[in-house]
Task: structure prediction
Amino acid sequence: MVLFGCGKSGPYISVGPGSSDFRTVLAGTYAINRTSPQDITISGGRSRIADIVVECNTDGRFIIAKRQGLRRRSPNDPKDTFEEPDPNLFDYWILDTVSEILVGPLSLDEFKTKRTELGIQTSLELKDVESFNKWKKVPNKISERTS
Result:
């Protein structure tokens, strides 16, 4: 969406939100917030799971999340500090939305162990964050997926 207007200081243009941006409540006051491909967080109370959340799910109390790490695009160029997703760097998080205790970053093995300790059902699987975008059309027929 692009908004045009005129204020006291003259005309202005405002851009956003993008067509892929969304906010979806997961549990309690906590929501997944996607404001760009590299700005996907879970927040809403005292705790926050920072960028880039790529998968998550909730049972209504616990939020589980997988986060992709970042790396410098040009590590040998001190002038280029831009960071991009690292395809080999992931960590895991567990947020108790009742006590607002956040556990992480965890390795995959630590994550599995902590889930068991907290009594989080193994049937609660991590899902791609895009599946939480209620505005996105999800194909329901094989023919729609291939066209």
In short: Residues 108-118 form the longest helix (11 residues). The radius of gyration is 19 Å.
